[in-house]
Specification:
Cyclophilin, ten-stranded antiparallel β-sheet, 4 helices, transmembrane helix, peptidyl-prolyl cis-trans isomerase activity, transmembrane, Cyclophilin-type_PPIase_dom, rotamase
Length: 277
């Protein structure tokens, strides 16, 4: 045997015990690892399914990132966010958003027209509310405004591909908040077309999940009619330019067509008055 062969045999003898000390993976360990992987997948899927108040299936990759709370002088901007011209720093999120036990009586709004003045960090937006066509929705909107439910609350979602809306009305900023009650669809267009300036309710796939979240169509938008569509309860009569200013900057990456606005905007207060004939 040559010296080179003797050295090779010595190296093999030395390496053998090192390999033997590596703990083998038992069948029970492999089963636990497999179960853990499956559980992780289930949790991820469940998280996407559970998040409510998005527009329906068919919109481009529905996502809505939470807004970060900040100091007493204003909310901290998320990475990549920039204030649009004429906008102020948003306030922090509400510490404990209000919830309510029952749906407001629709008789309070039936057959009436109202004007809502929505004061935001980027200027005022005025709505005309149609209690004749959507009495339950308008009664709920008026009640939540009076109770200060949205004071303050961020508009947490903007979309800009096929669907052109700014979605607001969730004090938690997460896209999953509600006032503690829900009700059904009213006055939804049969063709699914929502003209620019339309004010409508956001909901989950459950038609009875209308609550506090609403959206403003800043361009004509066509939505699926599954589940009865989306309640139109009014229109923007002033301030649509404010919405368009926010929409122009789109959403934060990775999906700039659907998500948290690059230019943040928050509702500060809402005042509603009845419009007399």
């Amino acid at each position: 045997m040559t010296k080179q062969q003797e050295r090779a045999r010595a190296r093999r003898r030395q390496q053998g015990p090192q390999r033997a000390t590596e703990a083998p993976v038992s069948e029970s360990t492999r089963d636990k690892q497999l179960f853990g992987g499956i559980l992780a997948v289930i949790l991820v899927v469940a998280a996407f399914v559970a998040v409510p108040h998005f527009l329906p299936k068919g919109d481009p990759t529905p996502q809505s990132a939470p807004t970060q709370a900040g100091s007493a002088t204003g909310a901290a901007l998320q990475e990549g966010q920039q204030l649009a011209a004429g906008c102020e720093q948003p306030p922090p999120l509400q510490t404990t958003p209000k919830t309510f036990a029952k749906v407001p009586d629709k008789k309070a709004a039936a057959g009436k027209t109202f004007v809502a003045s929505v004061h935001t960090t980027c200027g005022d937006i005025t709505f005309e509310l149609n209690g004749a066509k959507a009495p339950q929705t308008v009664a709920s909107f008026n009640f939540l405004a009076k109770e200060g439910y949205w004071a303050p609350s961020p508009c947490h979602r903007v979309t800009s591909a096929g669907i052109f809306v700014l979605q607001c009305g969730d004090p938690t900023g997460s896209g999953s908040g509600d006032p503690g009650y829900g009700y059904g669809v009213e006055n939804a267009p049969k063709d699914g077309v929502y003209p620019a300036g339309t004010l409508a309710m956001a909901r989950t796939q459950d038609p009875n999940s209308n609550g506090g979240q609403f959206f403003i169509a800043y361009e004509e938008t066509k939505l699926p009619t599954d589940g009865g569509g989306y309640t139109i309860f009014g229109k923007v009569t002033k301030g649509l330019d404010v919405v368009k200013k926010i929409a122009a900057k789109k959403a934060l990456p990775p999906n700039t067509n659907d998500g948290t606005p690059v230019s943040p905007i928050s509702i500060l207060s809402v005042e509603v008055t009845e419009k007399k004939a």
